[in-house]
Amino acid sequence: MKAAFIELIHRLQNDICLSLEAVDGKAVFQEDLWTREGGGGGKTRVIANGNVFEKGGVNTSIVHGALPEFIRERFGVTQGFFMAAGISLVIHPQSPLVPTVHANYRYFELYEKEGGEVVDAWFGGGADLTPYYLDEEDARAFHVLHKQACDRIHADLYPVFKKQCDAYFYNAHRGESRGIGGIFYDYLRPVDLGRTSTQDRQTAVSLEKAASNRRGASPSAKIQASQPASGTDKSTTTAVNAQGEHTVVPKLTYSQLLDLAKNNGQAFIDAYIPIVEKHASKSFSEEQRYWQELRRGRYVEFNLIHDRGTLFGLRTNGRVESILMSLPPRVRWDYDARPAMGSPEASLLSVLKKPVDWA
Length: 359
What we know:
By secondary structure, the chain is an alpha+beta fold. The protein has 11 helices and 11 strands. The chain has a single domain, classed as oxygen-dependent coproporphyrinogen oxidase (3-Layer(aba) Sandwich).
């Protein structure tokens, strides 16, 4: 699976970069190859100062080595080794009428000893849209295409992933979502991993203990509450969501989880490129640009305060320039800036305060 997933993320990186270059018509991605002290490296590709895109990156990384201390503490182990492969992208357009977009798909393996058998593995990923001016047609199209990508694997996936996305990409300190959502999933273990139920239980306990410690809750109470009742459908399993809570999802095989990332990687291209083409040539005002920069401030706040990918990269000795590629080039924080009542800007905020079922 490791080789298949690495091949997928490199192919997606090429396809996405070519699609974005074509719609920009001027700028091209510059590639920077890097290595990680401790094991692995990646390909950072950055686009800037184009006709359409002010700044963006489409990065892949494959890192491995001894588990960092904070991960050992999280899983309650004294030693271990890992491999993490993924693709991550953030695109910041020039125009405030074109949404910022993010997507990320990753695969993680754990080993008891270096070069040993895989003892645990999981998949994660998602995509979300951050408009500065709401276009409901765009929002529906983005969600519908990602729903269709999930439905090709299992009809029950999208509702769970959509809800998790709304919960994850949320600036709790502001009481508002970062954007209009999309999908998000994590800790999806392949049903054909070959682990025993006891081992699965131990891993779930470790995950929940770490999550409960972060929340200040009682781990044992939370774990007991999360256990399925006798006779629960064997076709489903529990996974830990963005808030450290258990959520029920269908059991999926390695092949299905690989296809889930593949389908949604293509859905990103199919959904986002038409949105860019629809709005990129429209004129905009300085007032609209000002609003874009204010909202970009919220984007920065989320990435530096809440985003697990950013924090994981920084705490595993990742490449700082690649990790912080997600930050926009022009941003502002003006004291107590608020949109006028009844304005398009206020309409956006009303949606960010209460998630919408776009699909």
